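Session log. Operator J.P. requested a structure for one protein chain; no other inputs attached. Running the standard single-chain path with C-alpha cell output.
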Amino acid sequence: MNETAVKVGDLFHGTRLTPTQRRIAHSLVQHAATAAYLSAAEVAELAGVSQPSVTRFAMALGYTGYPALRRELRGLVGSASAPATAAANEMQSAISAEAGRLGRLRDQLDDLTPVRTAAGLLVRSRPLPVLGLRAAAPLAGYFGYFAAKVHPDVRVLDCGGTQLLDRLDQARAAGATAMLAMVLPRYPRESLAAIREAGMAVVAITDSSVSPAAEVADVVLPAAVGTDLVFDLHTGPMAMAMVLLQAMCDAAPEVAQRRLEEFEATAGRRHIFEA
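Structure written below.
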C-alpha cells in the first residue's frame, strides 16, 4: 500500500467490523486516492454493497454519517506525506517511508491488548503451527527459528499443496489449539483457505486490518509493508513478529527462561557459535 492507503487503513484499526463492513473498508483502502471524493452510493457500488451499509459502516467507526467520514478521508488524502527531502533519491525515499511506517507501528503498540491476547493463545498451543506461504515463508521461518528456543513444539508450514492440509490435520490431532498465520500481499488463496479450515484459533500478522486475512482470523496484528521499491519491504511485519514473540516470553517467563538456558548450555557444549 502507498502512504495514503496506509493512513486510510489506520482509520479502521481496532474497530471490529462485520464482513460487509470489511469489504467497504478494503475498497476504501484499495482506492484511497479517489474514494475520498465519492458519494456513499458510489462507494457502495465500488464495494458491492448497499448504500445504507456504507452509512452504517461510517457510524460503526464513530462518525455521524458518511459525509463526516468522507471529510476525514479528504483530510488524509490532502496530507499525504512527501519524501523527507527534495534531494532524496528513490532508495532514500523508500527507507524514509519505511521509517514512517515503523513510527506508526510504534504508536499502534500503545495498546498492547491484541498482542497480549495473541501471545496467550499461541504460548498455550502444543504444538504451535506457524503458517507462511510464498512471500511470507521467510518470515514464518524466521519467527519459527526463534520461537523454537522458548516453545517446545513449533511447526513451520511454509509449503502449500495437499500436504499443507495434512500437516494442519496432524497438528490439530496432536493437540494444537492456535496457529500463527503470516499473510502478506498478494494474499495467497492457499493461506486463506488454510486459516478457514484450521479448526483452531488463528492469529494473523498481515499488512492491514482490512486485508483478506483479517476477515477470517480471530486476532489480527496489522503491520504495513513498504511498496516503494520493485518488491515489498517487510520490515513492519518482521518487527511485529518479534514483538509477538517477546509477548509470548512475557506470558510464560519461567518456561522461556528455562528453555533459553538449556539452549545456551547445549550451544556451548557443541561449540555452535564463535561468539
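Operator note: The chain has 13 helices and five strands.
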